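Field reference: "sequence" (input) and "structure" (output). Example, Sulfotransferase domain-containing protein:
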Amino acid sequence: MSHAIPNLFILGAPKCGTTALTHWLALHPEVYAPPAKEPHYFSTEYCLTPARSEYARLYRDWSVDERWAFDASVWSLFSPTAVPNIIQEQPDAHFIVMLRNPLQMIPSMHRQQIFNGNELEPDLRSALALNACRAIGEEASVLAGYPPDHLAYYTSCALGWQVDRLKSLVKSEHLHFITYDDLARAPAAVLTGVFHFLDLEPQLPTSFKKINAAKVRRFPLLDRASKSIGDWKNKQGITWRLGVLSWLRSINRKSQPIPPLTEDIVTDIQEKLAEDVRLLSSCIGRDVTFWFDAPTN
């Protein structure tokens, strides 16, 4: 196994607890955490780190005392190319997949993508109505250049078909599944299970505080302006940083709970994704159809 390429991949899915898991994993002395959590190198259609040398540089400080190094690119599960490319490079790679109730995941991802500046439709119901055109690549209220299918929430938040495809590519002993419910309810037990999967002695943090809570931009136009300047700098090859843009974006945010879903949106999600949730249950050997028994926010 190459020591220049990580051997542990946290494939996502987005808004399913990957940030918390990687934060806690990074505290273990035998786990190496790269400086960039989501390099998206292996996804051919959504590659944010195209140069192999740049990707390898993320792992240059990985020491022989660290048995595992992870890549937590959250769109790798959704990508049709990421896992095949990973296996070609690292046949013995291990994979962790985070799963979440679509009734929670969809509004959470919609809120996050608004915060990131990629989702231009602030109303969830209206954004869901754009699913079909986004799924085929139309930039319907999507930031130019960002993959529209990521924001086709009925597709990208349907985890059953994605896990089914993953299981056809990866040995079962190299796969570990975690539900957001378990992570929220019993983080110590979940993390202990991860350490057993990795054959590591469990070392738990002293506290499990909430990480990556829902946020909104105070002034969306200010955020889009600072993001545009940052994109322009990257295109011009300007690498020096004064930290002004990062500072602007950091002060232009506030925590804000996600409002409960309306009854019609709940019904729509349940009708469209019930079959996929049944497929997911079959794939992971655990019945999660209870997710749709009652609205959950």
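The longest strand covers residues 94-99.
DSSP finds 13 helices and seven strands in the chain.
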